[in-house]
Design a protein that fits this description.
The chain is mostly helical and 136 residues long. The chain has helices at residues 7-14, 21-34, 41-47, 50-58, 63-79, 81-89, 92-100, 105-118, 122-134. The protein is built from nine helices and no strands. Helix 3 packs parallel to helix 6 and helix 7 runs antiparallel to helix 8 (105-118). It is globular, with a radius of gyration of 14 Å.
Length: 136
């Protein structure tokens, strides 16, 4: 699969105001499922789908959209060490840590799960320690 195939999905997830929340949620659902497909790591990195998914986590989006974005990132992190490192290096550890502080308990639990997946990488564990030290 070519990275360009993900362009409309990336644009829909990333668009605030241009798309309805329902459209964003549907695009995020597609990513949840695509993230389970083997051998997609290079496509995910080249398409830059990680950044808009992370942006959804840190913005004031609906809890459902944030949960779906988190699930897509979790699935990507499980499937590929390369994507796991990419998520971590683009701010995924910090985004997951921020989700731990939300009052929405299911969303906080998703953040914890994402953090657990990202912690399978040495680089991401270092970023987590750094993030924890900065919050002191």
């Amino acid at each position: 699969m070519e990275a360009g195939v993900l362009t409309p999905i990336r644009q829909t997830v990333a668009s605030s105001g241009k798309q309805t929340t329902d459209q964003q949620e549907e695009a995020a659902k597609v990513m949840v499922n695509l993230a389970l497909v083997d051998d997609m790591d290079d496509v995910f990195v080249r398409s830059d789908i990680v950044r808009p998914l992370l942006a959804v986590l840190s913005n004031g989006n609906s809890a459902q959209l944030r949960t779906l974005a988190c699930m897509a990132l979790e699935n990507m992190a499980v499937q590929s060490p390369a994507v796991r490192d990419h998520i971590g290096s683009t701010g995924g550890v910090q985004a997951a840590v921020q989700l731990l502080n939300t009052s929405d308990q299911p969303l906080a639990a998703r953040g914890a799960s994402l953090l657990g997946r990202l912690a399978l990488s040495n680089n991401n564990r270092k970023a987590f320690v750094s993030s924890a030290e900065n919050q002191r």
